[in-house]
Amino acid sequence: MPPANLSQLSAFTCVARLGSFKKAGAELSLSTSAISHAIRTLEERLGVSLFNRTTRSVALTDAGHHLLGRIKPALRDVGDALAEMNDFRERPAGTLRINTSRGAGQLVLMPVVPRLLALYPDISVELVDNEGMVDIVAEGFDAGVRFLDAVPEDMVGVQIGGPQRFVVVGSPAYFSRYAAPHHPDDLLAHECIRYRFPSGRIYKWDFEKEGVHREIDVPGRVMLGDPTMELQAALAGVGLAITLESVVQGDIAAGRLIPVLEDWSMPVSTFTLYYPQQRRLTPALRAFVDLLREARG
User: Fold this and answer.
1) How many domains in the chain?
2) Does residue 98 lie in a domain region?
3) Fewer CB atoms inside 10 A, N or C side of the chain?
């Protein structure tokens, strides 16, 4: 049996990760038919089916799961070896894939990306915002960015942002109908914009003042899973929202949103970029980290 080649195995792992021939083709800059041909050729060489295909889904067979588990470490080693070749270049190069929360992407990463691209023409950047935690190694990311207390223990963390805090805000239209709350317990009589994490857990609003901690399961008729829509709903007067103060500074300054319970606001840890302990920092990622540290000041 002739051996499978690296491009076929790469196509296989990409389809397995994304669950789609079309998405795998887009990521690998190949047509869907080319991806399909690579998988079909690999299956013919191995004499087994690797995927169960329907018109709506693509799922690994038992044989596919077994193959994926065996080859992922080897392909990761090959990828790391190729990435190390950047050390022999005069300038950092390659594509940086970073998984980030939306807030970190907007507040910390995107302000630095233009300078990174200007200084290093051979670097390209892909930022994927995801409010839930993902396995950055399994999903093929170079690094992730979350609050420090959410970084997995087996990762190396680099703090890249200043301290943050949450603030409760509402629009002038909202406060024309409701009196401003003065204590977290007052929120039980308000319309609040609730947030559901990708895991399904509903966020309970946290507050702290002079060592006193309050956690409120706020009421509200609107439940969202996207911070941008939360802000839109608050601006529209739907209800109160809790968000990072730095995200709404402009809206507060312009009078579009009014902060309340400021003396009860809950501070949170700094944004942190993290990567696996066993993986060396590539020149491209090192350049990005240096610029992020510089921006932090």
Assistant:
1) 3
2) yes
3) C
Domain that holds residue 12: 6-76
Residues 190-218 pLDDT 10s:
999 999 988 888 999 999 888 888 999 99
Helix, strand and coil percent figures for the chain, each rounded to 5: 40, 25, 35
Helix ranges, 51-154 (H): 62-84, 102-104, 113-119
Same structural domain, 121 and 263: no
**What element of type H or E holds 52?**
strand 51-53
pTM, whole model, 2 decimals?
Answer: 0.61
Q: Are residues 169 and 151 in the same domain?
A: no
Dihedral sign from CA coordinates of 167, 168, 174, 175: negative
CB proximity list for 282: less than 8 A, separation 6 or greater? 83, 84, 86, 92, 94, 142
Q: What's CA 202's distance to the chain center, in Å?
A: 19
Residues 116-159: tens digit of each pLDDT: 999 999 999 999 988 778 888 888 899 999 988 788 888 888 88
